[in-house]
Design brief:
Elements lengths: L5 H12 L5 E12 L9 E17 L4 E6 L5 E5 L13 H12 L7 E7 L9 H17 L5 H15 L7 H8 L4 E6 L4 E6 L7 E7 L10 H16 L12 H7 L2 H26 L6 H13 L6 H12 L4 E5 L6 E7 L3 H15 L5 E5 L6 E2 L2
Parallel strand pairs: 3-5
Antiparallel strand pairs: 1-2, 1-12, 2-5, 2-6, 3-4, 6-7, 8-10, 8-11, 9-10
The protein binds 2-deoxy-2-fluoro-alpha-D-galactopyranose.
2-deoxy-2-fluoro-alpha-D-galactopyranose (GAF) binds next to helix 5.
């Protein structure tokens, strides 16, 4: 995917705000390899940062105001820092404003700032454009204020911005991937204690490709299905009397089935089996070729489609067509109800798989998908 043109962003910043930025900071989107909806119940996830990213040009000042602009949005959003609190800012600007607020709550004070962002992460595609936006601003403000706040705290500040300012009750996976991503590696994260480890994901050397298939079905995590699924997992947790669903194992499922209604049980079964699939994927990646994780990706998709019920017809069509055309495994990725699926395949099969997915969408009358390869990339950093 193409990168933001940093020189042009800096020039646009000067044209917009009247002086040059103090620095440019970039933060990637992510693909979640496996471990879906497990990051808000203490579970395991295995995402990786991708080479699509958001870049923030930032200058600090003492104006008492934030001025926020985006190259994909009209106008400049102005925010009085003295009245910055949840609910004060709406729309895309709630994310960067939320980061300023959440960092302030952790003692990283900003007295005034101008911020211009640009992004190559498609929005609403399940590739976490929101975490890329939050993290580009967060690393920038950390750097420019000279704060020594750690990456785990930055993750929590960005999550709080998203939960409380943007109103999306999401977990900590996306921000961790964006801040801790490393080229050639996925990020294995235990969301209970924020312990993370890089896990090798050597695609090219095994002649493998991970394709993203963006269905263009837009999702929205601040409303609807995501929130509803989160509530179901909380009901399961409270009914079973555990601290977190992470504490429920596959061996406990028979007992849980007797104590929960059918829908809540199936939501629980997804979380419990998905946590195990993440552990199995990590073990497989550490001992053999990534080609060996295909069945785990397939199992994850079936669980999301049938038990957690967060897939949709377009995602299922992409997954089924990719598999039928030779993919080793495929699954929807991200929060669900739209967005993207991923397929793992041999390099030689890229054309055949892509063509098969396009044909399936055409035959069903769906909007043509965007299909592109992704490589595990580095996490957030200063670039200028
Ligand atoms: C979204 C959320 F932001 C993540 O925290 C995670 O819950 C994911 O959906 C589902 O695994 O990306």
């Amino acid at each position: 995917m193409s990168a933001v043109d940093a020189g042009r962003l800096a020039a646009d910043f000067t044209a917009t705000f009247g002086s040059a930025p103090d620095g440019l900071f970039t933060a990637p989107g992510r693909v979640n390899l496996i471990g879906e909806h497990t990051d808000y119940s203490g579970g395991f996830v295995l995402p990786f940062a991708i080479d699509a990213a958001t870049t923030a040009a930032i200058a600090l000042n003492a104006s008492g105001r934030l001025r926020l602009a985006s190259r994909s949005q009209d106008g400049v959003v102005e925010v009085d820092l003295a009245s910055l609190e949840p609910g004060a800012v709406q729309g895309w600007a709630a994310y960067p404003a939320g980061v300023v607020w959440a960092l302030g709550e952790r003692g990283v004070r900003v007295e005034g700032a101008d911020i211009l962002v640009d992004s190559t992460v498609p929005t609403g595609s399940g590739l976490s454009s929101s975490a890329a936006l939050e993290c580009s601003v967060a690393v920038g403000l950390r750097d420019l204020t000279g704060s020594s706040i750690g990456l785990d705290e930055l993750v929590l500040a960005c999550q709080r911005a998203e939960n409380e300012m943007a109103g999306a009750p999401t977990g900590i996976m996306d921000q961790t991937a964006s801040l801790r991503g490393a080229a050639g590696h996925a990020v294995f994260l235990d969301t209970r204690n924020q312990h993370s480890e890089p896990v090798p994901l050597p695609l090219t050397e095994h002649d493998l490709v991970l394709l993203v298939m963006d269905t263009h079905v837009k999702h929205e995590h601040a409303t609807g299905g995501y929130t509803d699924r989160r509530r179901s997992t909380e009901l399961a947790r409270d009914t079973l009397g555990v601290d977190a669903l992470r504490d429920v194992t596959v061996a406990d499922l028979d007992d849980a089935a007797r104590r929960l209604d059918d829908v809540t049980f199936r939501r629980l079964r997804h979380i419990v089996t998905e946590n195990q699939r993440v552990l199995d994927t990590v073990e497989t990646l550490r001992s053999s070729s990534p080609a060996a994780i295909g069945a785990l990706l397939d199992g994850s998709h079936a669980s999301m489609r049938d038990d957690f019920e967060i897939s949709c017809a377009e995602l299922d069509a992409a997954v089924d067509a990719a598999r039928s055309a030779g993919a080793l495994g495929a699954r929807m990725t991200g929060g669900g109800f739209g967005g993207s699926a991923i397929a793992l395949l041999r390099t030689a099969d890229v054309e055949a798989v892509s063509a098969a997915v396009r044909r399936a969408f055409d035959a069903a009358g769906y909007t043509a998908p965007d299909i592109f390869p992704v490589e595990p990339a580095d996490g957030a950093r200063r670039i200028g």
